[in-house]
Amino acid sequence: MKEQLRTIGESFKQELCQISDFMYHNPETGNQEHKAAEMLTAFLAKHDFSITRQVLGIETAFQAVYDSGKPGPVVAFLCEYDALPEIGHACGHNIIGAASAGAGVILSKVLSETGGKIYVFGTPAEETNGAKVAMAEAGLFTGITAAMMFHPSSDTRESGTSAAMEALQFSYHGLTAHAAGCPEKGVNALNSVIQLFNGIDALRQHVTPDVRIHGIISKGGVAANIVPDQAVAQFYIRSATKENLAIVKEKVLKIAEGASLMTGATLEISNYELSYDDLKTHPELSKAYNENLRLLGVTDIKPPTVGAGSSDIGNVSNVVPTIHPYLSISEAPLIGHTREFADATVTDFAHERLMVGAIALALTGLDVVCGRVL
Question: Which domains does the chain have, with CATH numbers?
Fold first, then answer.
């Protein structure tokens, strides 16, 4: 049956590559991916998937279901399709969206023989306010046997880890005054933000090596001769596990409070994006995917790295067995989040790898519905 699926998969090459290329030429940032969502759902509907749009009220999220009508395991393929501002699909989500939808359709062609059910989830805004977080919290992955996707990359690597992440905004409120004429009457909110940065910089030598804390000043005042009465900083705090992240977060919060005490400004703390859990790769599912990659001729599979970045698939992996491997889309080295990476997604080599990845996902889904894994 695997050879049958491989043949079926190859028959979709032109269509899936066209979908990926369309998204490359029409990049849409998070929660604005209307064209991408419409193209993917149209493709899935054409192959008898039942479509639910605007899932959880998220305009560009969708859920597509193919039910064999027979009992059996349930496989979920996860589509991403948001682009980055100004540099387009520099993270390769056009390939992810096309390949995951393709994997669902490819596997559906044999589901009448195996039984089971397929979900394809359209998950917007992975780069910012990842929909997978809300989907996991709402229980959309309850009852699913396995969830999977692959990510385009410079290297082919086994599914590994990603960092837990908290996106915190610190808004300090002070009091304006003439910065030369009567500075003593002002309360400088910008000084609080500066002290926040200084305190976090001092903290860096007292955290574990996996921790990353990085931020920007998104608002720092309006004119040099006015004491700033409002200043805002936004930070990402990351750690290998959500348990350690909670410890680091508490330290950062105390620094933020201390900065407000130093200046007399008041402080408001909020999340400006959703928080991501750390990715927990399921070893048995990962092994099955790697074996299927080798079956398709990809043998240069490197060990997983310890991920310093974060993804909303971490939240999925905390509720259902999940994999998130990487697949090389270029014979030359690539750096993610660059225009060069975006351009690499529409090469002939990337098209070949899109199909390899889609078929490998479908073959791994077959292993799941046939009860060979999990």
Answer: 2-162+278-369 (3.40.630.10), 164-271 (3.30.70.360)
Mean pLDDT calculated for residue range 150-169: 97
Instruction: Please check whether residue 211 is in contact with residue 306, taking contact to mean a CB–CB distance below 8 angstroms.
Output: no
Residue of 311, 293, 169 lying closest to 231 (CA atoms): 169
Q: How far apart are CA 365 and CA 274, in angstroms?
A: 29
Those residues with Cβ within 8 angstroms of residue 363's Cβ, 6 or more apart along the chain or in another chain: 2, 5, 6, 292, 295, 296
At residue 305, the pLDDT reads 83
Count CB neighbours of 25 within 10 A: 12
307 pLDDT above the threshold of 90: no
- Rounded average pLDDT over 104-124: 98
Distance CA 66, CA 72 (A): 12
Count of positions (residues) in the chain: 374
Q: Where are the alpha helices (DSSP H) in the chain?
A: 2-10, 13-25, 34-46, 93-108, 111-114, 131-137, 189-203, 242-263, 283-295, 313-317, 339-344, 348-369
What is the average pLDDT across 308-312?
89
Residue 153 amino acid letter = S
The Cα–Cα gap between 114 and 96 comes to 26
Mean pLDDT of 300-326: 93
Stretch 99-105: mean pLDDT: 98
Residue 21's nearest CA partner among 29, 11, 13 is 13
pTM of the prediction? 0.91
Nearby residues of 234 by Cβ (< 8 Å), 6 or more positions away: 167, 168, 169, 170, 215, 216, 218, 272
